[in-house]
Amino acid sequence: MIQRLKQLKQHKRWLLMVSVVGVAIILSACARGGANHQPIGPDYDGLWEGLIWYFSRFIIWSSDLFGGNYGIGIIIITLISRILLIPLTNMQQKNMSQMTELQPEIEALKEKYSATDSKTKEKLQEETQKLYDKHGVNPLMGCLPMLIQMPIFIAVYSAVSRTPELATGSFLWVNLGQPDPYYILPILAGLFMFVNTYLMQMGRDNAGIGGKIMSIVMPAFIILITVNLSSGLALYFVASNIFAVIQTLIFNNPFKKRREAREEMQRKEAEEQRRKRAIKKAKKYGRNIKK
């Protein structure tokens, strides 16, 4: 059990590190232009090149359904990829909410096992894992959807940058192969990411300072990166983050959670008032009543 806990903690740390560093490296590489910008064609070599080719063909095919509007094609493939990820994303959000709800109990365990000797630390890890198992919480689930989405993101970027039709296509005011000259798409991408993280924080009663900081840092990071990316990829981020906001409102609505929490509090207060009145009445007539 102790060895398993140590491995779990180490794996979680590595997953978080790899996820953050991986996204930063990939986005930075994309911003610099990447190493391979040769046009993708039907004579592709390898499984990865094949995935890029089929992504490219699907975008063009769906674009043709809307009069050759390649921006619509990018939005469609973004929505499809997000829909496929709904089960994992919902699992991630549920897991994060449960982790937040468990924070008071985790802090109590840390206070109970506050000694710094190795035996006490192992006992703390063991009790923490028991708490996770009891509530069906897996700390590693926070990274899984992002790790799965990364190959999709890279494939979409490669399809946009290596398909001549997309690189020279236009959507509204932008050339899909060039950065947005007015920075509207990068700002929208960051704005909707902020809205989504804000909504998720609203749904958690015990949101930590780390989550609040990330809700500001990540949108700012997305804006800084996408100002140098092609508008096609910036459009991908905008569509993806808008979808994330809608998904949060449907499956993890913070306004509904707050209303339910308020109603539950009012119900408990009403029960407490009834109990006090019953006790007062019982005392008046000399009867015993359980408190």
Automatic annotation (TrEMBL):
Q: Record keywords: Transmembrane included?
A: yes
Function of the protein: Required for the insertion and/or proper folding and/or complex formation of integral membrane proteins into the membrane. Involved in integration of membrane proteins that insert both dependently and independently of the Sec translocase complex, as well as at least some lipoproteins.
Q: What is its main location?
A: membrane
Pfam families (UniProt xref): 60KD_IMP
* Membrane insertase YidC/Oxa/ALB C-terminal domain residues: 70-252
Which segments does the entry list as coiled coil?
Answer: none
Report the subcellular localization. Cell membrane
Q: Which family does it belong to?
A: Belongs to the OXA1/ALB3/YidC family. Type 2 subfamily.
Protein topology in the membrane: Multi-pass membrane protein
Entry keywords, A to Z = Cell membrane, Chaperone, Lipoprotein, Membrane, Palmitate, Protein transport, Signal, Transmembrane, Transmembrane helix, Transport
Q: Where does the sequence pass through the membrane?
A: 14-35, 70-89, 140-161, 181-200, 207-227, 233-252
Q: Which GO terms describe its molecular function?
A: membrane insertase activity
List where Basic and acidic residues composition bias occurs: 262-274
Range of residues in the leader sequence? none
User: Where do the segments described as Disordered lie?
Assistant: 262-291
List where Basic residues composition bias occurs.
275-291
UniProt-listed GO biological process terms? protein insertion into membrane; protein transport
Stated name of the protein:
Membrane protein insertase YidC
Matching NCBIfam families: yidC_oxa1_cterm
**In the UniProt record, which is one GO cellular component term?**
plasma membrane
Taxonomic source organism: Dolosigranulum savutiense
